[in-house]
Amino acid sequence: MIDKAGIRSLIAIDNMPEEIAEQNKARAEVMARLNVKPENTLPAAGKELDMPKINFDVLKPAAAAPVKEDPYSDAAIKKDVQNKIAKNRAKGRDRYAGMSKNDVVIAEIMKDEAEVKLKNMGYNKKAVPAKNKKNFLRGSIEVDPNHPDGFRLTDDQDLYDIYGKDDTIRYIQEMAYKYDDVPIKDAVKPFDQYNKATYPSDPAQQAALRSYEKLYNRLTPLQKKQIVNAKNGGLISNYKKQFRKP
């Protein structure tokens, strides 16, 4: 290597062509021994390129398409019944107003199932002192000559309290009569000495008598008077023949 001191330092050229050639030759020999390619050499075809790293932990899956509910499934039917009851409450109407007898039966089944679940969970309703000590009906009665009793109840909860727990068949018939005008078959039959089905010893007659007595004991004095006035006015022609109590 030529010394740059002295007069060489005054010359603008740093290296002579001979020096540059020797340096390139030496650099090529070293790179060949180290198996290193020059910097200006392009990568061979097929060489794996550096790709940007992707953090898959932060990627969110695409939202699943909503599953359509079967409108005829048990859950959908129960939900529909609950919506009808909620609408009636919001409008201040009777719980089962405008509902079919099938919807009413489903609603009562749901109510019983809920009470059983609460009981199994150890939940007990706190006893609240009843203001109505005589346990009168919640709603009113309506004189109805087409009804076997001569009158009918207007409140669905009263119907359930009287018939729903002890006489399910009569309860269903009462609801069907109220909403669909289906005649009631299982009621107290007028006594006929030639017909054993009218005897108090007959099981069906016994059940009907118990239900009627339960109902009669919950009538207010004014409601009882209403029935008597209807009988005297001829609105209930067969009432006195069927029942001992006025």
Task: Spell out the blueprint of helices and strands.
Elements lengths: L16 H17 L40 H17 L10 H20 L20 E3 L7 E3 L2 H9 L3 H13 L22 H14 L4 H12 L6 H4 L4
Antiparallel strand pairs: 1-2
Notes on the protein architecture:
The chain has 246 residues and is an all-alpha fold. Among the domains are: 74-120, no CATH class; 141-242, no CATH class. It has helices at 17-33, 74-90, 101-120, 156-164, 168-180, 203-216, 221-232, 239-242, and strands spanning 141-143, 151-153. Strands 1-2 form a two-stranded antiparallel ribbon. Strand 1 and strand 2 (151-153) form a beta hairpin. The relative contact order is 0.07.
Tag the structure with descriptive keywords.
246 residues, mainly alpha, two-stranded antiparallel ribbon, rod-shaped
Rounded radius of gyration (Å): 48 Å
Strand segment count:
2
Q: Tell me, rounded to a whole number, the average pLDDT.
A: 78
Return the structural class: mainly alpha
Question: Biggest sheet, open or closed, and with what strands and sense?
Answer: 2 strands, antiparallel
Measured as a percent range, the helix fraction is 40-55%
End-to-end gap: 140 Å
Overall geometric form: rod-shaped
Task: Please give the order of strands in the largest beta sheet.
Answer: 1-2
- The number of helical elements comes to 8
Helix and strand sequence = HHHEEHHHHH
Strand content is under 5%
* Poorly predicted parts: 238-246
Short description:
The chain has eight helices and two strands, in the order H-H-H-E-E-H-H-H-H-H.
